[in-house]
Amino acid sequence: MNRITKLVLATVLGSWGQALDPSLGQVPVPMTHPMPDVTALTEWQAGKTVSAEAVEVFGGVDKCFAAEPIPDGVWQRMQGKTYKANPYIGRNDLSHIRALHWDYDQQMHVGEMVCNKKIAARVTRILRQLFDAKYPIQRMLLPDVYGADDEMQMRDNNSSCFCYRAVAGTGKLSKHARGLAVDINTLYNPYYKDRADGTRFIQPATAAEYCDRTKAFPYKIDHGDLCFRLFTEAGFVWGGDWKSCKDFQHFELRE
Hints:
The protein has 7 helices and 10 strands. The protein is of the alpha+beta class.
């Protein structure tokens, strides 16, 4: 290790209370804080919580928000789950978003999302704005964690984007199949459609109580909500404004 390298390491790690090398003329002092664990960030482990100290050592908040080509490991996880061979969209059409998000627990959580590269910059910017405002998002995992089972991930209040699938109950491809729709806090912002026979179809099926939008509850998206404002200002359409059905979690870009 040359002297310049030693000086750089001493500068970075010395701030944590420990001079690295007496040969540099520094006096070792006891560490007052252990080095933070940055594994969740260096390996980008979505779902993990991270401290402000870990984020700082990793390179700061700005480094935690990025859209990039799909990494090999992510692409492998998607196969046969959110991604199925098709003639409409491929790996090069998609981007992987890295982001942090807050929840009501007042902790920073690691999140990730796959979306169409056409909207990647916009979605990354919105997620950063929501983070800066400490807007609560409970989970931001790839649907592959749930085997691409939409009902399962919605019941878990997961927020996501890309999944190659049809619209529920139809053979028509969803906007999610193109990576052009984002769902946020899905349990508390369900999809529902009232059928002609008087029954109501609800997704997730466990979200019946959250179909009543006159009630107050956590994670609720409405016209006064920051999430609604940021997505609609960026050109997205909100499913909560639809007439034939309601999809309160859903923001899509119309082509």
